[in-house]
């Protein structure tokens, strides 16, 4: 979906990185290494997104750090588009449908860091969770989102996840 609208794979990676959660940030060289791309390609896209106001630049220890501009009028919309692109909205809807007493649905792992690795890890927090139901819907979700999905069941939040529902 997003790849049909935005033809630059590097720009899509950056949008996912910065808009899956506003807590993510990055430096030019670190992003180039993370995405296995040239610094030139990353710099070009960072400049475009910064010039448009979607990203903020901050100088930290003689390096420029980039992060999503949460004050931009399109921030919420871009975040929703990225979540839909990754299939996070579908996962939340499917879980809440018949999962039981779910308190929080939390994105953990690579996607919480903004890395589109192909494996979405979800921590489901609650007391009486219907794990048989989630096991049965995983193939359906994976077919819809075109990514592998792993569920973890706990009674507490992880230390570094991103809450998708509840909280």
Break the fold down into its secondary structure elements and pairings.
Blueprint: H1 2-5, H2 9-19, E1 25-27, H3 28-35, H4 39-51, E2 55-60, E3 63-68, H5 75-86, H6 88-98, E4 100-108, E5 119-129, H7 131-145, E6 148-154, E7 162-166
Parallel strand pairs: 5-6
Antiparallel strand pairs: 1-3, 2-3, 4-5, 4-7
Helix pairs in contact: 3-4, 6-7
Structure description:
By secondary structure, this protein is an alpha+beta fold. The protein is built from seven helices and seven strands, in the order ααβααββααββαββ. It folds into two domains: about 80 residues, Arc Repressor Mutant, subunit A; about 80 residues. Helix 7 links the parallel strand 5 and strand 6. The model has no long low-confidence stretch (mean pLDDT about 85). This is ArsR family transcriptional regulator.
Brief overview, please?
This is ArsR family transcriptional regulator. The protein has 167 residues and is of the alpha+beta class. It contains seven helices and seven strands; from the N terminus they run H-H-E-H-H-E-E-H-H-E-E-H-E-E.
Keywords:
single chain; 167 residues; alpha+beta; Arc Repressor Mutant, subunit A; 2 domains; four-stranded mixed β-sheet; three-stranded antiparallel β-sheet; 7 helices; 7 strands; 44% helix; elongated; ArsR family transcriptional regulator
